[in-house]
Amino acid sequence: MPDLFMSLITFALIATISPGGATTLATASGVQFGLVRSIPLICGIAFGLASLNGAVSGGLGGLIKTFPQIQLALKIFGSAYLLWLAWTIGQQGAPKSSGNADTPIGFMKGLLLLWLNPKGWTMAVSAAAAFASLSDSPQRLAILLGAVFGSAALLSLTLWCIGGQWLSLFLKTEKQWRYVNIALGLLLAISIIPMWR
Questions:
Q1: Nearest 5°: phi and psi at 93?
Q2: 149-to-53, 127, 131, 156 alpha-carbon distances in Å
Q3: Rounded Cα distance, 44 and 46, in Å
Q4: Could you tell me the pTM of the whole model?
Q5: Quick check: 161 and 35 in contact, CB under 8 A?
Q6: Are the CB atoms for 98 and 183 separated by under 8 Å?
Q7: How far is the C-alpha of 148 from the C-alpha of 111, rounded, in Å?
Q8: Cβ–Cβ under 8 Å, residues 142 and 53
Q9: Of 61, 79, 91, 174, which residue is 20 to 30 A from 1 by alpha carbon distance?
Q10: DSSP-based three-state secondary structure for 19
Q11: pLDDT, tens digit, for every residue of 48-74?
Q12: pLDDT for position 113
């Protein structure tokens, strides 16, 4: 059992630190707003991942697998939401000149990102299936997976955000800020492609 628990922790860390929509959003927020002002976003994404894993392992995953229409709706709404976020990021300039500089993406939008992300659902269903033997009840499994994935996401997203804040130290001109924000917006948009494979 301890080996399986360590596998769960490793899986959660790799899944949350690998590049994707959430990590790109955390990096972009770090570039634009710094770590402290990005904490609500990071907490929203982490809570979204924790609650999603808890809900899936508690029984919601079976419903999603049973009805492909729900999966398609998640892909459509999730893609639209990520494209909107990518556009928002790509339109920003340097923090002092941007009209959106005073309003970083908050907790609820971070939470929504995970619940509308088919990649998050797939990861949660995979984790619930792979690590079901760690608990004798769906409720305990939901708490365990939620806690592990939420903690891993807090760590991983904080590191990505700090990386973004570090990157902002090298941005001196409005043009440099625009290029970086456009690149981060494009990366977020590209993260949609694996959803449709």
A1: -110, -150
A2: 7, 10, 12, 10
A3: 5
A4: 0.81
A5: yes
A6: no
A7: 17
A8: yes
A9: 61
A10: coil
A11: 999 999 988 877 766 666 777 877 787
A12: 86
